[in-house]
Amino acid sequence: MLDLNFVRDNLPLVEEKLRQRGMDPGEVLKHFQEVDTQRRHAITQAETAKARRHRASEEIGKLKKSGQDATAQISDTKELREQIQQLERVAAELETRLQQILVGIPNLPHQTVPAGKTSEDNVEVRRWGAPPSFDFTPKPHWELGEQLGILDLERATKLSGARFAVYWDLGAKLERALANFMLDLHTREHGYTEVLPPYLVNSDSMYGTGQLPKFASDLFRVPHGEKDLWLIPTAEVPVTNLYRDEVLEASRLPVSLTAYTPCFRSEAGSYGKDVRGIIRQHQFQKVELVKFARPETSYEQLEKLTHDAEEVLQKLGLHYRVVALCTGDLGFSAAKTYDIEVWLPGQEVFREISSCSNFESFQARRANIRYGPEGKNKTEFVHTLNGSGLAIGRTWVAMVENFQQADGSVVIPEALQPSMGTDRIKPKKF
């Protein structure tokens, strides 16, 4: 969420940044100035009435002390009390409207974000490696997975419906090996601390990272008595909210955390996209990277986080590219995002495998996560960052498609062979 005073004092800038995102400022801001002015006026009137009532109360005390009649003044204070209560109700209603407007305003793109309207305007930053060459026509992962007996979409549909998957034998083991490989890399070499959070969170947690109220239709809600709980769409939600309503010591920053969790998404509005295979699932597993940083170092930390995620692909020998998202393709809470896209030869396309974002103080303000800068009496909001390190299902897909062989087998990268117990996946039926 943006700071109220910032929006009020920089309204033309906010409107321009919204236009850069391809949004109508009038629709997003929804009479912000009018509501803000009315609210401030109601508060001023209430404070003025309170001052009058205070003076009247003092006068009543003096009159009573001297034995004089204070009936008129007492009547005035009653009227003032009713007037104050009414003005405070009006101010509270306007405050609610103002907060509704503020929570609907997306983060403002950083000055380094390329201008553009759609993903077609995203800017490629770099590439690593080269696509594999085949002397046969490479197959997509859904065909390979079925032929190898490691991916079962038909039985998953029987169990749960569309957009779920069952992994068998070495297919399941490959998911587990990838998760361990990523966690070990990030904790042992990149300095992250591993955390295992709950997979169900409350509404405050979803609000803190920006999923609620705007994206409720993309989430799985689990009513629980008088509470609403939500299945997490990403470990970003519980891990970021670990420090909700807390003040971090400046000496601890940056705090770098990693977590392996399942993720649950309703994929509302995305039916018809990536319907084949396991690119877009209701449930998938992911290793997440989350950082809490000082404002002056957060963009340096974004570069580091992105490189940490890239190293997973480098160690696995997978060809990828990094693109900077343009203003029109930026997520609601992000100020800047790099997407890492891995090459999938079976589909002849780059697919996003990680989004690495700096949210600046946008999430921290919603979740009230602060730190105490040295030499200052006031606390300030931290900057939060996160990225996939990586999406395990899509890494699984990339490995199966990139390392497929003419005989139908899939070669296991050397980095995973010890945990897999083999150097190759061969066809097997269950």
What's the architecture of the largest domain in CATH terms? 2-Layer Sandwich
Tell me the Rg in angstroms. 27 Å
Structural class call reads alpha+beta
Q: Are there runs of 5+ residues with pLDDT below 50, and where?
A: none
Report the sheet-strand fraction.
Answer: 15-25%
Oligomeric status = single chain
Helix share, percent: 40-55%
Instruction: Give a short account of the largest sheet.
Output: 8 strands, mixed
The gross shape turns out to be elongated
**Helix count from the secondary structure assignment:** 14
Supply the CATH class of the largest domain. Alpha Beta
* Beta-strand segment tally: 18
The main sheet orders its strands as 1-11-12-13-16-10-9-4
Q: In a few lines, what is going on in this structure?
A:
This protein is an alpha+beta fold. It folds into 2 domains: 4-103, Helix Hairpins, CATH 1.10.287; 119-425, BirA Bifunctional Protein, domain 2 (2-Layer Sandwich).
Describe it for me?
The protein is α+β, with helices and mostly antiparallel strands and 430 residues long. It has two domains: 4-103, Helix Hairpins; 119-425, BirA Bifunctional Protein, domain 2 (2-Layer Sandwich), CATH 3.30.930.10. Helix content is 40%, strand content 21%. The chain has 14 helices and 18 strands. It has helices at residues 4-9, 11-20, 25-29, 32-65, 71-103, 141-148, 153-159, 169-188, 203-208, 236-240, 298-316, 362-367, 392-402, 417-420, and strands at residues 123-128, 151-152, 166-167, 193-194, 200-202, 220-224, 227-231, 247-249, 255-264, 283-293, 320-324, 336-344, 349-358, 370-372, 380-381, 383-391, 410-411, 424-425. The model has no long low-confidence stretch (mean pLDDT 96).
